[in-house]
Amino acid sequence: MDKKILSVCIIALAVLAAVFAGCTGTQQSAATATPAPAANTDNPTAAPTETQSGAPTEVAVEKNVYIVGIDFENPPYSYIDSEKTAQGFDVECAKWISEDQGFVVKFKPITLDEIIPQILDKEIDMYYGGMTITPDRLNKVSFSDVYWITNLGVAVNNGSTFTLDDVTTGKAKIATRRGSTADSWIKSEYVDTGILDAGKLAVYDSFPLALAALENGTADAVIYDAPVVKQLIKGKDIDFLGTIETEEKYGIAVRNEDIELLDMLNTGLKNLKASPKWAELVKKYELE
């Protein structure tokens, strides 16, 4: 056979072999990527985040994500700021505990009357926003160890002649937040005992609305959790009169069956309180 023809035949066979191998051979499988952990979300409306490269990470460990219900206007414990970002003592504590215990938290602002229904309906996994532990609530959900104890605070307009004694003996018209422990305490201790006429108690859907009633003269005094009262009267022509000793115990509410989550929260709370961060947060939010 002519050498030129032989060379052409050999080259042609080599090309055909390469094409055939490309069509039928097994390519090297790409590495199966483990989903990157979700980031702690301060902004309840924020979209899920990606890694800096925009691609999934091959070595990241997937973490459980828990939805944390918070009060959107209950400073210093929890609130939503002007940039729609979750802030507050409880918010920062939740983030610290999540990092300590290896899970992720996302915050969801809800109203007071939505707390227990949303926990039971699994719309949120926990509520961490200044919630008092009460026998009625314990019949429906479980609570973490107590993380804070507070009392009720009383405030009046600057220049008011009403004293703390006037308020506690039924002489003043009182405003508070509907459905709060302050609301139930005033009713049981003052209204039901005859100290305060029922017509002198006005309840509102939020504490800022109760403060507005005080400012416009509809109410003579407001009663609510003392740290919240102190925070929300800043910059207003309102004076803090003093406290009523109620020793309300705050806890994190979860579903009864979520025992593992409750254990993590209690361990995280214990570790947080033993760390310098606890004192730092207490000072930052003026809780003492």
Structural notes for this entry:
With 288 residues, the chain is of the alpha/beta class. It folds into two domains: 65-147 and 251-284, Periplasmic binding protein-like II (D-Maltodextrin-Binding Protein, domain 2, 3-Layer(aba) Sandwich), CATH 3.40.190; 150-249, Periplasmic binding protein-like II (D-Maltodextrin-Binding Protein, domain 2). Helix content is 35%, strand content 22%. It has helices spanning 3-24, 89-101, 115-120, 135-138, 164-168, 181-191, 207-215, 226-232, 259-274, 276-284, and strands at 65-71, 73-74, 78-80, 86-87, 104-110, 126-127, 142-143, 148-157, 174-177, 201-204, 221-225, 238-250, 253-254. A five-stranded mixed β-sheet has the order 5-1-6-13-7. The longest helix has 22 residues, at 3-24. The radius of gyration is 30 Å and the shape is globular.
